Amino acid sequence: MRFLPTLTSYAVATVAVTSFCTLAAEHHAPPQLATTYVNDAILPPIIEWHGKSEALLAAPDSEWATPFEQNGLKTSPNYDDTFAWIDKLISQTNMLKKVSIGKSPQGRDIWMIVASKEGAEDAATLLKNNKPSVLVQAGIHSGEIDGKDAGMMLLRDIVIGDKTALLDNANLLFVPIFSVDGHERSTEYNRVNQRGPVNMGWRTTANNLNLNRDYAKADSLEMQHMLRAINIWQPDLYIDVHVTDGIDYQYDVTFGYNLAQGQSPSSFKWLENSYRPAIEAALTAEGHVPGPLVFAIDNTDITKGMSLWNASPRFSNGYGDARHLPTILIENHSLKPFKQRVLGTYVMLEATLKTIGDQSTKLKSAIQQDKYRYSPRVTLTWKQEQQEKGWDFKGIGYSMQQSAISGNEIVRWNGEPKLYPNLPVIGGTKADIKVNRPTAYYVPPQWTEVIERLSVHGIRMTTVNKPSKQKLQQYQFTAPKFGSKDYEGHQRVKAEVSSQNIEASLPAGTVRIDTQQPLGDFAILLLEPQSPDSLFQWGFFNPIFTRTEYIENYAVEPLAAQMLKQDPALQAAFDEALKDEAFAADPKARLRWFYQRSPYYDNQYLKYPVLRSN
């Protein structure tokens, strides 16, 4: 189906392929025109949309139209054009400051716009105004760029328009482009399932890392900069703007956060009972269709229900839950036109500033409760279970058709709204592996990369200045299983875990991490090996699985005879082991049995170097 542009009184029927770097009035050459996106013909039917939020659009020839508005609501500006426009806006006011949170691997600044009534240009000054701050980041997946254009419009209306009052009771920290290098790997052929903008950035960084898998391990320079910025600027709310994949449905703006069963239950209550009603009311009033995050259990059979996602700390919302920073994941619907998605995001961001301004005390109180809860038992993994309440899902009708190309049945969406009543909802809400909260962890000084990552996260640590001995707990691993392929630059690993109490000799330089600190829960999730986003499972400790010392057969044979002669109990244990026919028939296993029980064996093999104090 061809996409015929829907234009308001503010938009003209000329749709530019490329964006402008300055105001429309300053251009001499007419824009190149386009009336469709390159992928329109292969996408499901479009549902025509008009909403009150269209009144937010500036006329394309107005002095302060954004590049998005200048070019027919179909394009998004490149990096240089984005900040050329923003710099012009900043020059008109003292309320906006531009701060670099760091440079990308290709040398681009990751800019953050600080918007406050007082014109704060550093974190210390901003914190003094005692207003809640919301950090909004766009373009963590840089093709999913709706938040950038919406944020530019909102900043314009705060500075030039009639929305200055939004900063009366709140501050805005706005990162227009997080994955700046990926943003510049732009083409009209990047996101086949998404309706605009015309040119879209790439999903991953220049190092091919997915930033929304990087929060826990913090490999990328971009993520390290963002984590430091969060620690320095201390936002009270974090919004991560995406565009979703998957199925067709009626919702245009979906959003969510981690669950009541997570590490931040008080923040969840505020988000669910105070924030969501206010935001959904604002979106609905402006003609949008808000909803929770949509993840179908089976994209080919909607009746199987929806998945309720309990994200781990590798993701933005899971990270926010772990570090007690209320974090909202926006997933705009990729099959809705770019204009509709941008306007929905604008409405949500505006309503967010109003809401946190009105509810600052409740929000800050919820965060404090979570930070200092110090639960004695911490859940590391969750099992799936059906939720008590189903979902009356606002879907789109579809049929299944046999494909001559793939040989499979494929979904054909028909563009007709359809309600799927009371769909089952399956979520990771049943606690699985739990551990007792240790008093502290001890990381030996040689594990420098681990210590550095903990520091990047802002986890408080102290250093043991002289050697000491302590009674501590140590994990030991058996049956390690390594990932069959690389994942995000790592070979992940899982293993069976047991523990023992030991008297440990701690060298000078050992780092101690107290778990009774604001980021104590997050430290536990990073350092407990059974946690899915532990540094252990990400492979930071993989060298412990390498055998580096061996014993030759000619030496172990007489050693084994000597051991048996000196220890009758060992002889009895060996006789018992020989009852296993496979063991008895394996000469190497028999010799290894003695080596492992000899004083020559590596006593650190398969043992976790991070120790626990109970």
Automatic annotation (TrEMBL):
Its cofactor is Zn(2+). SUPFAM superfamilies: Zn-dependent exopeptidases (SSF53187). Pfam families: Peptidase_M14 (PF00246). GO terms for biological process: proteolysis. One of its GO terms (cellular component) is extracellular space. Residues 1-24 form the signal peptide. The active site is at 331 (proton donor/acceptor). Residues 75-356 form the Peptidase M14 domain. GO terms for molecular function: metallocarboxypeptidase activity; zinc ion binding. Keywords: Carboxypeptidase, Hydrolase, Protease, Signal. InterPro entries: Peptidase_M14. Belongs to the peptidase M14 family. This is Peptidase M14, carboxypeptidase A. It comes from Shewanella piezotolerans (strain WP3 / JCM 13877).
